[in-house]
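Minutes, project check-in

Agenda point 3 was the complex the collaborators sent over. CS summarized: three entities, 709 residues total, and the question is how they sit relative to each other. Sequences were read into the notes so everyone works from the same version.
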Amino acid sequence: MIKVQKLVKRFGLKTVLRGLDFQVEQGEFVALLGPNGAGKTTFLRILASLSRPSMGIVNIAGYRLPEQAAAVRRRLGVVSHQSLLYGDLTAEENLMFYGRMYAIAGLPERVREVLELVGLSTRRRDLVRTFSRGMQQRLAIGRAVLHDPDVMLFDEPHTGLDQDASAMLDTVLREVAARGRTVVMTSHDLARAADLASRFDVISRGVIGASVRSDEIDSNDLLAFYRGALQES
Amino acid sequence: MSEARPVKSLARENSSSKIVNFIRAMGAVVWKDLSAELRSRELISAMLVFALLVILIFNFALDLDPATRREPTITAGVLWVIFVFAGTLGLNRSMAVEKDRGCMDGLLLAPVDRSAIYFGKVLGNLLFMMMVEIIVLPIYSLLYNVSLFNPGLLLVILLGSIGYVAVGTLLAAMAVQARTRDILLPILLFPVVLPVILAAVKASTGFLDGSEMDLIRPWLNLLIVYDIIFSAVAFMVFDYVVEE
Amino acid sequence: MNPKPRLLTVLDIVTIILLLIATYMVFFYAPQEAVMGDVQRVFYFHVAAGWVGMLGFIGAAISGIIYLIKKDRKWDIVGLAAVEIGIVFIFINIVTGSIWARPIWNTWWTWDPRLTTATVMLLIYLAYLMLRQGIEDPDRRARFGAVYAIIGSLSVPLTYFSARIFRTIHPVVIGSGDPTATGSFDMTPMMTQAFMFSLFTFTFIFIDLFWHRIRLGQEADQIEQLRLKTME
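CS then shared the predicted structure for the full assembly.
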């Protein structure tokens, strides 16, 4: 589903990603772990088609970035740690807007459905400005899922959420991932990632340092695995 | 709480023609900006209050006797100063909304042409600017006892606003990404939009004092040429401003 | 660091010599102008500086276009160099114009097309630098600089053209003769020679400074790269 070969990304004279290789099969849920500044967000932005690779090959759902970006975007749902929502519009209006941008058929129905899915039906006429961070994140997931994408990218979605909100988010995440979608999620939070992911990759110094499947490792050993991967690079 | 649909992408492929998609996206952007503004009314009220304040300041700063104040050159000049400065507020705010909460990324993630976003923003900005102009004109008319109900004048205001907004939207998209965000837009915009203002003021004066069309026509032509050139260039260059 | 190319050293020397000769020609070789007197000599450097200022503008716009197409950092350095040099020379142009204007038109300033355009050019140059200064990401800085240089260089001719539809009191020495323009004068052959030579010299100064500035930019990049390497 996702195939990345020798990805290089430079900002001016600084190289952030150095020949990164990455491959994800359909239906996998990959947690991308790594320290700050390792390039997680940069990598995710490139996958999201928001940033161009300096060199290398990026293939998503059979389409190549950046040349076939429009085709990729149709199949991609992205949740950033920023909500990407308009504060002065209601939840419903936000979804209606994005629905139009994605040219979705049967939009009102779909919006209703998605609001149900993320548990915000009762708040649909409320301004997003009045939402708590947790609610905004859930609506953001709703936005990302509106056009029924095959691939979903989450950039540290639990940022700024308390325990309850995080738990609610996890429920939605599982629901969203359960439909056979391919998910890549960056995270700081090993415990949460352990619960959700089917695979753990560690990014360090601009490449994937190590990778392990969730059935190959015990969740208690995850921290040791992570530290080990960082030291090796 | 689960999804009823099977997993397949809902976003339509080439079922509609490219042009329809383009217009739909553009319309969506305009609708979004108008809806948000209608609800908060922050932008329009800020621009209006600002315009009224400028009228007030000019009243005292240029302490002219009533006859002089009604002269076409003064009227045209003051009006355009008002529009230019109030317009800056609108442009800044319109782009700042996208920068907040990373909404610009949301727009860029959609499978639409970047230029649809650009034209949508331009149209929205133009509508805001025209809303302010429509309110300022009668107020100015009343305060200074000068008739501004002049179709030629309205045409000039429209053409001038188009040119202003075409370049202004592009430059605002750049300015909003800089640290010095607020003051940078006027610094970037004013020297570059000067031909528009020059032509607009001259043409406005011409219509207000009832000059011959032959005298006014070169200015109108200049406005149209400017509008076309800059809309075209801004449209071509917008990609480079928003993409990374 | 790359050692300074031999050619550049030669260019430095040649430029200095040209400047000395030009100064001699302007102050001694060219005859005194009948009506305006010695102050007219400012004209030679004034126009030449204006010419270089324009070169800077065109250079910035062209390298901006090339940068957007090729994404090669080198062109960004070229654009910045063009703008920096252009600013200096436009400023010289405005100041020398003012010096010349005072005794002739009895005013330090007037809003006629050429002066207005020169001022607008200066403002656009400065805006360019301020734009760059406000942007952290080097790639974005380069892209935005390129875009603004293109927009700016399109707008300046339009400004000049529209300002020209007004009447002008600026002497139109070369070009259409407006009989009402005071301060015009005809050039004798010796004056023409001094004038051409000044243009020639200033073009050399431009190229010389340009080359130096580009080298400076490249060296700054090299230092930055080394610094990044040591941080890893």
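Noted in discussion: The first helix of chain A runs from residue 40 to 47.
Follow-up: revisit at the next meeting once the mutant set is ready.
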